[in-house]
Amino acid sequence: MGARWRTTILMNLASVVERADEQVLPAVYFFVGKSLRATPAQLGTLTFARALVQAISSPLSGILGDAYDRTHIVTFGCLLWGIMTTAIGFSQSLSQAMISCAFNGLGLALVIPCVQSLVADYHPSEARGQAFGLMGLTSSFGGLVGGFFATNVGASQPLGLEGWRFSFHLMAAISLVTAALIHYYASDPRPRCRHRLHALSPKRRPSQRTGCNEKPYLVIMMTPAGVFWQYAKQSPSPGKMAIQAIQTCRDPCLSSQACRARLQMSKLQSPTWKEKPVKLDVKAAEVARKIWDVLRIRTFQIIILQGIVGSLPWQAMLFFTLWLQILGFSSFTASVLIAIFTLGCAIGGFAGGFFGDAASRWAPNTGRILVAQFSVLLSLPLSVLLLKGLPTRGAPSMEAHSKLYGFIIFFFGLMISWCGSNNSAMFADIVPEQSRSTVYAFDRSFEGGVAALASPLVGLVAEKCFGFKGSLAETAEASSAEAMQNADALASSLLACLIVPWFLCLLFYTGLFWHFPRDKRDALRRSMQHGSIDNLSLATAL
């Protein structure tokens, strides 16, 4: 198996384990609340602590990922979140769990930006929607399995441990195994495809050796397969040179269209045999310049703005399992319904990427935007139907309505999950290759920081505005009428935290129709100037 497929599979595995790790906590909210005697708002603070630290730390992943081997960053992130996940399982109080969740967020922050950057580098522009959609599909299966397992084990005592604690310990073990696999088998494509080009001064290589009257430059190509050289004519611009052609090379990496384009487009300033060491202050200035170049892109700003409000509902939906349990469904039925919802999201994410790729071929500058807006538009009526339009009474038990809930929640997940894969594909189109880790990291940072507020917000709105009463331990012992009142309060809070952000998200997407085409052209021009153009189609971009 080649390095491309091996690394792609392992990056998908990392995203699977990351999503599973994220889903374990909300899947056992009910059992953690009973064990630690916490209210919904207090449980939300656990997710808030993790998401906030994850958001603040995400830029670190981008900076490190653009400077060092990204597989090493992913490995360390998996290792760190694995250790902190098992620490959550040992927690005896809400404050201990909150500290462990916060450090768990640091590990999670290091992983996903580098994973997304690697996936973008390994796939051409016209296939990135499907690549990110497939990653969303596989990671959703991780969330499905993690949530289903944790919810059903939560009430039992395997190996003498409380079920929710056992779930965290098992998740930690899987994370550590994933870290080991990535460390030994994954590879970053940049060391293979970014060849260091050096040129000797014309004085060091006489023109008689090439049989021409012009003084040539000797271009040295240092690749993993060996050192290869090629004479190139001097550029009319003093102090610069252009590679006219690459004739023969035994490195298979150079056979790709992308690598040939890089070499043909490359221009070397002040050719010398040895590179001068780079000072730390120069590196810091380079990092700051790269960050500023990303932050000032208008498309990036708009996608971040819609992502901030668009991520709030996804954090709020972490309470779906708790809502179904309070509504009267058994833990098994609730876990099945959430698994069905996650399956719908997984298929929807892949379908969204597929439709986005098809739409981008039909309308390169607006296709993905239209697909994302259509998904957000459908989410508004579907949210009302799910949370307020389905029966909550009128049968001996809620189990009689499980098939109806299953159908609606599957369709809901199928239609609301098209945006992520298309946003990731658009991000890859608006920045040069060497800045992709940074753009994905800041996306996670800005979106995650505000979206983290949604977890405690759902509980607070339910308690302060809609009349949710008592802790979850008290709710479990309350009468059916009181439990139903709490379920209605939680549903109303969820609806408010879904409808308002998604409506704003729909409006913000509109700005991309003006700015995305221009930023896409600018990114292509910068890529050619830096000699790092990938498999973008000039005709498509222009």
TrEMBL record:
It comes from the Eukaryota. The chain crosses the membrane at residues 73-91, 97-119, 131-154, 166-186, 299-326, 332-355, 367-387, 407-428, 489-516. GO terms for molecular function: transmembrane transporter activity. It is found in: Membrane. This is Major facilitator superfamily (MFS) profile domain-containing protein. It comes from Apatococcus lobatus. GO terms for cellular component: membrane. It holds the Pfam family MFS_1. Its main location: membrane.
